[in-house]
Amino acid sequence: MKLEDVRLNMEKYRELADEESRFLKDPHLTLDRMSSRYRTFNSEDRSLADIVIAEWVLSNDQRIRFDALVLIDEFKISTAAAALRTLASRLSLSDAPGAPYELKKVFRILGEFSGGPRGGPA
Amino acid sequence: MAPRANTATVGQRVVPVVEVASMLAVVPRAATSAYPALTNVDEAAEAFHYSFTSVLDLIRRHGLRAGSYATPAGRLSPIQAQIDLALPANRGLRDAVIRIDLAGLRKAGFEIPEITPVTRNFRMPGGGQEMQFPYPVPPEFLTIVSP
Fold this sequence. Notes:
- The complex is a heterodimer of chains A (122) and B (147).
- Chain A is mainly alpha-helical and 122 residues long.
- Chain A has helices at 3-23, 29-40, 43-57, 62-75, 81-93, 99-114.
- Chain A is globular and about 35 Å long.
- Chain B is built from four helices and eight strands, in the order E-E-H-E-H-E-H-E-H-E-E-E.
- Chain B has helices at 17-23, 56-62, 78-84, 102-107, and strands at residues 7-10, 13-16, 46-51, 69-70, 96-101, 116-117, 129-132, 142-146.
- In chain B, strands 3-5-8 form a three-stranded antiparallel β-sheet. A three-stranded antiparallel β-sheet of chain B has the order 4-7-6, with no helix packed on it. Chain B has a two-stranded antiparallel sheet with strand order 1-2.
- Chain B is globular and about 40 Å long.
């Protein structure tokens, strides 16, 4: 598949899973579906999926960012590190109530990639 | 033998949860004195999210996904949660309870969603109370109550 195909595939899959999870009053079902979908990708498609997930990290939609962070954390997608650092910069300037907590999560994930301390910079 | 997750034992019979409500002629809680009135969200210090143990690790690391539901009632059995909160019966009973620190969220600047009555759905009578978070709830405001 090409990158655009993988992007459309993942966006559509996420949309359908989200619809199902809303219907069943179980928001975490979307993540279960997305994880299962990711596991079905071969190594070539997985590297393209990683690019899409890194794009999701920079989405303005916090739901999409949340899902991206879960997938990056679960599958240790270290190629998303640059996107995570960009997100961290944005969050550090945000006055949204959830920003400090999301920032802490981003630092934790980055820290685990580097094997360094968890919870953000000193 | 223990009943399967989406069944309940009634007498000596193991029956699907969807049948339990009608067998017991369950009365929606709102029509009884168990929930005398909607909880005033401004006074509520905590709420409870009913979920599955299979996602507890994820919730510990990432918090609750936006769109998650909670209820002021923290002592519902899995089957009572299914009935009162009108949860779908074909996915098993929700066997994990997570406390949400509403007071802490409020103090941190989050807007606490309104509490509304649960209406009938999935052949469950509803009658409980629920709130739906439009934002992710960070793990810092969550405590696993059970298991």
